[in-house]
């Protein structure tokens, strides 16, 4: 619980969040979110929505955002409903959305399986789950970015209104995020099948497209 409070507190107080994302990713974060949007079928629930950067790009149906940090939601600009809530225990009725998205958010969620089960619960049968996330170490080329993420970003962050410790947290969370095969098994355990994976930017960022096929775990045909 202490860790969750710390994570939420860090985001509550984050200033110039999106400006730094654009600077440090050379604007690529905007392109990655657009790929996610192309996969959306409404109604859309965007979890860990932060300042609503995903919701602002979606114009084809009803949409809603949820985030644990009220401070992030307060900085969101756009005409869409936003609620405070934890991905591990969503304050949302069963089977109410056709797509659930989470962009650069699942990395921060402590109990990822609990969150994935919640995404399954709020999706209609056959609904889509879109996970956009960063990971170093799964794709061989992604290691090229290690010095950039581990050193350059924390050192440069104060120049753009950031806190170096937030970037050390970012680095650790990227490193610890499950790789593709672990994600695939977490998805199966929570009733999803991975349908498509996009790799961006030397494999440093993924977009997982999964489908809700059942409400419980999916047996692994290989038995492994
Ligand atoms: C890196 S930001 C991403 C924001 C947004 N999705 C984007 O693309 O700009 C991560 C967000 O996850 C939220 N978050 C962290 N843990 C969470 C949880 N357990 N439940 C819901 N939101 C959470 C943070 O408050 C923060 O707004």
Could you characterize the architecture of this molecule?
Helix 6 runs antiparallel to helix 7. The longest helix has 13 residues, at 164-176. This protein is α/β, with parallel strands linked by helices and 224 residues long. The protein has one domain (2-134, 179-212): Rossmann fold. The chain is globular, with a radius of gyration of 17 Å. The two termini are 32 Å apart. Helix content is 36%, strand content 21%. It has a seven-stranded mixed β-sheet with strand order 3-2-1-4-5-7-6, with helices on both faces. Bound molecules: S-adenosylmethionine. S-adenosylmethionine (SAM) is lined by residues 7-8, 11, 47-50, 53-54, 67-69, 72, 86-88, 103-105, 108-109.
Summary keywords:
single chain; 224 residues; alpha/beta; Rossmann fold; seven-stranded mixed beta sheet; 7 strands; globular; binds S-adenosylmethionine
